[in-house]
Amino acid sequence: MASKKPTRVKARLPRGFVDREPQDLRAQARMLDTIRRTYETYGFEPVETPFFEYTDALGKFLPDSDRPNEGVFSLQDDDESWLSLRYDLTAPLARYVAENFETLPKPYRSYRAGYVFRNEKPGPGRFRQFMQFDADIVGAPNVSADAEMAMMMADTMEALGIERGQYVVRVNDRKVLDGILDAISLEGDQPRRLTVLRALDKFDKFGADGVRLLLGAGRKDESGDFTKGAELPADSIERVLAIFEADGLAGVSGAFAGHAGVDEGLRELTDIEAFCRTAGYGTERIRIDPSVVRGLEYYTGPVFEAELLFDVTNEKGEVVRFGSVGGGGRYDGLVSRFLATPVPATGFSIGVSRLQTALKNLGRLGAADEAPGPVVVTVMDRDRMADYQRMAAELRAALNAPGRPVVPVEVFQGNPKQFGKQLQYADRRGAPVVIIQGGDEKAAGVVQVKDMALGREASEGVEDNAEWRAMRAGQDSVPEAELVSAVAAILDRRRAAG
Question: Which keywords describe this protein according to UniProt (predicted)?
């Protein structure tokens, strides 16, 4: 009877998740360092919360009892409590602040970077795991804290190399939006309120004519898909659209001034605008914009969004505006879910992966973000592995002094029988230098140091293999005591050449 072949597990990536290559991770690390430095100049300190939280701590993302994985990834602990992977970084912060409320300085400034998880249908550019980088001030009721958030968002964009004119931080106030909805007689009509807010959020994309349709009977797009509208009366539609007829606050004031909620929101926006302008942030950086909605059931006051203004080509080959890379606002009710006392808070979140894509499109993440390949110590004799490890250790210690760029050094750990395979490996790894010492070199007290880039340049146009070997292109013999200085000289030469 023939033996049954073992069943192998199929190598496959789960939908909505991605593997990330070294160059992407290094570029992300540089980007996170830049963001972190900007946050710290404003006095923010780091805190880290776990990936899992009790599901009821996630607030509005709490799944239904019969659908514990709706929107979040959940599991039941051995005590029958439900745990969920965090959906964002703000709800875990609220829990952390509530647990440590008596010992934390207030206002409490913190920043956090980490992965969040969404149990949603994946699609183009839509993932189930992605990184956010948040900053929050908890315990600050004054809108000067919101203005500071908007200013820090603008500073972060520029620190990352996004120039003025390529981004804008847009600011609005949920009190203005809620007041407008009340003023057009939609109190308590939650479905239509949400429809109106979604329509306003599309102003940049569809313009006044498109929003007019969404506020009315509905809109059919180029593909024939129909979006049902809010079915507002004609006079209400025109009154809402009037908020866009003037820049900043003037349009809202002209159409809805006198309503208590709108007036309160306008006062907050007026203060934010004054704070920003006095601090030197003009309209090309921070702009009042009544179309900013964000967080339909989440924010309680000022809201802001960092938008990139340049065009990119999407997956379909279409040229589109890049759009939002982060946003936030005031959320005075979230921490109070855990405490009897009101706790005001404001913050924002940067979508790290999306922002990294934007920086690539701007050419800010290119060859300069590539890490150098390793110096490779080849193995000519397995019995002398201790010698090769000693050379590698000496090179690591000498070439990686504090404050200098990291120089990786490794001993070849594959099959050493075919020396050509070792050079092929070094070339594939982008090694700048290869170290070679056989028995004859060891007896003579020397070591061969091969400049891989110089060797490639010298061998261009050489077709005969024997001629190439005779050239020993880029390869020099140096006393063993001069190994470190010879390698350092090659590395310095390569850095100078760019």
Answer: Ligase
